[in-house]
Amino acid sequence: MDVPAVQNPGPGAVAPAADPYLVYLDALTSAESRRTMRGCLDRVARVISGDQAATGAGQPWHLLRYEHTVRIRTILSEQGWSPAYLNKHLTALRRVLREAWRLGQMSAEDYQRASDLPTLRHTRLPAGQHVPPEVAGAALAACDQDDSPAGIRDGALLAVLYSTGCRRAEVAALALADYDAAARSLRVRGKGDKERLVYLTAEAVGRAEAWLAARGRAAGALFCPINKAGRLRAPAGRPAPMTGQAIADIVARRLAAAGASKRTPHDFRRTFIGELLDAGVDLATTQALVGHASPVTTARYDRRPESRRRDAVDRLRMPDARPLRPGGP
Q1: CA nearest to 30, candidates 177, 179, 167
Q2: In the chain, what are the domain boundaries?
Q3: N or C: which terminus of the chain has fewer CB atoms within 10 Å of its end residue's CB?
Q4: Which residues contact 229 (CB under 8 A, 6 or more apart)?
Q5: One of 34, 98, 191, 233 is an active-site residue; which one?
Q6: Annotated catalytic residue, options 89, 189, 269, 270
Q7: What is the pLDDT of residue 323?
């Protein structure tokens, strides 16, 4: 796992204000993105330093050259990771090198050469599984059986996930001001700080209103943590935001209570896209609702080609199982 040519490649730690690692993470607009890319860079830093406790802070990123980054890519590719997971690490590495160049720590030529790392080409079906209506309904029923504020909140949260297809980080970032009951809309901030409007079903609005009756109308996060005593976490009367992981934990807990198999918030997103396309909603509208940068990404969730292929196979008939007659072929 060592990279001899990279270990101790230069002088000591970089000052925080000029650290490409910290500058890059500060430039990310989403807390979820910062957490993800920090993890990627920390894993790359362990390859660079040979120290399994290392983080990306203070590493001499500016001294990496093409021969180093190619070796890093090779070592990462030997970890048995999926192509998408490996490519995410390469993206993080390229971006931190770009910040080193922007900070004047690398020449343009050194930066271009070191970051010239081809991504691993791959074609994969979207991860996850469909959430059937009966499973979503059972999870909502589990919430309704819990008459505490947490049960009301979780019912509204599941309804938002199911009827909007939002990412878990997007739901965590929602504020009360983003909710418009009259328009049945939520203003969502997606990747790259891009805003879009998504719309709730009438049933989801009913659950959101029930939650707001328990939450109150104070400015702050739309969904907030609740302690074991049933009290909302609201410092200075302002409901605090939840994390994306907390939302994933709620989904897992309510599905388990309903006796359903494990699913994730992204499975609700996958289901939302598939249901829209199955209903004949055009690709451009679906793309806009879920905040994909490219229609190609949205099209990967289209279940109709899969259904047509299955229907084609169903036209075949298996031959009857019977032994051949003597003298037969």
Answers
A1: 167
A2: 16-114, 133-311
A3: C
A4: none
A5: 191
A6: 269
A7: 81
Does 122 participate in catalysis according to the annotation? Answer: no
Task: Name the band, by pLDDT with cuts 50, 70 and 90, for residue 127.
Answer: low
Do 35 and 28 form a contact (C-beta atoms < 8 A)? no
130 is catalytic: no
Q: Which of 62, 73, 89, 292 is catalytic?
A: 292
d(CA 248, CA 266) in angstroms, rounded, equals 9
- Which member of 301, 308, 309, 310 is catalytic? 301
Local structure of residue 240 (DSSP, 8 states): P
To the query of whether residue 89 is one of the catalytic residues in this protein, the response is no
Quote the CA–CA distance of 120 and 245 in Å, as a whole number: 28
User: pLDDT of 134-164, one tens digit each?
Assistant: 999 999 999 999 999 999 999 999 999 999 9
Q: The domain 16-114 is classified under which CATH number: 1.20.144, 3.30.43, 1.10.150, 1.10.3470?
A: 1.10.150
**Of the listed 167, 215, 254, 270, which one is catalytic?**
167
Domains 16-114 and 133-311 fall in the same CATH topology: no
pLDDT for 13 equals 55
Give residue-wise pLDDT tens across range 73-123.
999 888 888 888 899 999 999 999 999 999 999 999 999 999 998 887 766
Instruction: Please tell me the predicted confidence (pLDDT) of residue 9.
Output: 43
pLDDT band at residue 8 using 50, 70 and 90 as cut-offs: very low
* 124 flagged as catalytic: no
**Strand duo 185-189 + 195-199: pairing:** antiparallel
Residue 164 burial (CB count, 10 A):
24
Which one of the listed residues 266, 270, 310, 317 is annotated catalytic?
266
State yes or no: is 266 an active-site residue: yes
- The CB-based long-range contact list for 49-53 (8 Å cut-off, 24+ gap) reads 49/7, 50/1, 50/2, 50/3, 50/7
Tell me the CATH number of domain 133-311, given options 1.10.150.20, 1.10.443.10, 1.10.10.10, 1.20.1510.10.
Answer: 1.10.443.10
Closest CA to 175 of 236, 230, 242, 235: 242
